[in-house]
Amino acid sequence: MLAGIWAEPRPARPPVRVWRDWALSSTLVAISLVEVLLRDDRAWAPLLVGVSVVVAACLLWRRTRPLAAVTVAFGAVLAFDIARIAVIDATGLLGIAGLLVLPYALLRWGAGREAALGLGIILIWLPVTLIAEPTSPAEKVAGYGFFLFSAALGAAVRYRTRSYDRDIEQVRLHQRNELARELHDTVGHRVLAIAVQAQAGRALSAADPKRALATLVTIEEEASRTLKEMRALVGVLRDGTDADLAPRRGVVDVERLARPGGEVLGVRVQVSGDVEAVEPAVGTALYLIAAEAVTNATRHASGATHVTVDVTASRSQVHLRVRDDGEASTTSSPLAGYGLRGMTERASLLGGTLRAGPDPDGGWSVDASLPRTARAS
Asked: Is the pTM of this model over 0.85?
């Protein structure tokens, strides 16, 4: 633990110097000047003001050079206190009260080794100044308490800020995962559908030009919808605004995945039960899982001739099964990583389960079970 603290780097992006820093330093110097003018004994006035100016100047670099600021400021005051003990007879100035800010800055903006070395310098100075300025035991305890409290406050603010930044990064990572999943599940699926329709159109162009033309119309419509969704996602990324990323489709839309066999893989869809009463979030997830499973079958099911999609709604659950009749040895290889991961995440986030793998009867199957009412897992 100590080695980790010693090797800890400085926090990133310390605040720049602003007018308030100059105002604080100027105020401390002004207080020292006024205090010197009000004293009867001004023999050591230049030295006193010089020490106050050094301390005030160090405050300007307390964020960007915390250890250097502590070393110079406390070093100057330490030399002054040693001189007070051995040579001169002078009391301190209120202007050096700015020293209280430096332990906070040291623990807030310094690296681990800088904080350790700086605290060592402060702890060396404290007993010396308490000797130079005779105080009661209670005042000595209070002196240590003030500086240690300043350092502890800086450490607390530092680690609270780090925790906040970590939470923000987690939120950003979650948003990126959401966008990646939506891009893969919606736009990616539709682009593949366009490719499949184009293959069908090419196969039909010679034998049945009318059907080939109808396929081109379908490709145009699908491309327009895909472009619209792409623009929406790009707008979210560019503007940083919130958006409803969930496609407006549900369980009843699973039937749209059906298409006849022939030159391309045929898809049969069967929906049973009271699917209209399924919660919209669950319906959208089931549709996207089914669409992704059909897409993977189209891509990876070697030798498959058809895919069956069965959706059954019971009183508390909705079951989805997508199965192809391809070669088990081929379809048992891992599916596209992002697709399988996205399907599993969608089911898990709603409190459901998903299993994908070789089917005992041959081919590949995806089985998902989701509650009719979504609940966060």
From this structure: no
